[in-house]
Amino acid sequence: MIDAAPDDAHALTVLLHRWQDGDVVAREELMALVYRRVRAIAGQSLAQHAQATMTPTELAHEALIRLLAADAGWADRRHFFHVVAQATRQVIVDHARRRLSEKRGQGQAILPLSQAPELPGGGADDDVVRVDEAIVALAKEDPRQAQVVELSYFGGFSREEIGAALELSVATVDRDLRFARAWLKDALSP
């Protein structure tokens, strides 16, 4: 999905550069051009999180708001969509952290531990936060493999799309995914 028609890909790159040069109209045209793809990324990402409480539209809007606020310099459409995947990841993780905070009784009276009720496992929100923390740790060991996992897990990118975004062969993406999954499984095991 990253590899749009050549005309769209060129138009997107041109709009990115115009926007970076201060053209406000280019920003609006860019958002219209990429909205469907950003929403698709959000949908793919949420599909991997069984108990997601956000809609793809909400996630896409929040990711785009963060993207616009960041106002980073994007080299091309691939870099732009990589930043979209990062923004999507941060929205999902922040949402999970907020829900975990609410579950832990934010604003309620503090009970002594001996009087506290038994708490169930952390669930899906805890898993999202743990995966995010593990990806941050993996990035310290191997940044590229962390990017591959991020694009796959939070961005919903296919192996081919990851290869195109990071300028890697599909075979290299497969190797990185196998290694990263094994590394993450080990990091996430109790």
What does this structure look like?
It is a single chain. This protein has 190 residues and is mainly alpha-helical. It has a single domain, classed as Butyryl-CoA Dehydrogenase, subunit A, domain 3 (Up-down Bundle). 73% of the residues lie in helices and 0% in strands. It is built from eight helices and no strands. α2 crosses α3, α6 packs across α8 and α7 crosses α8. It is globular and about 50 Å long.
Distance between the termini: 36 Å
Pattern of helices and strands: HHHHHHHH
Let me know the number of strands.
0
CATH architecture: Up-down Bundle
Helix-and-strand structural type: mainly alpha
Q: Strand portion, in percent? A: under 5%
Helix content: over 70%
The level 1 CATH classification is: Mainly Alpha
Supply Rg.
19 Å
The CATH topology: Butyryl-CoA Dehydrogenase, subunit A, domain 3
How many separate structural domains? Answer: 1
Largest sheet: none
Q: Estimate the mean pLDDT confidence.
A: 79
The poorly predicted ranges are 1-6, 108-122
Number of helices: 8
Shape summary: globular
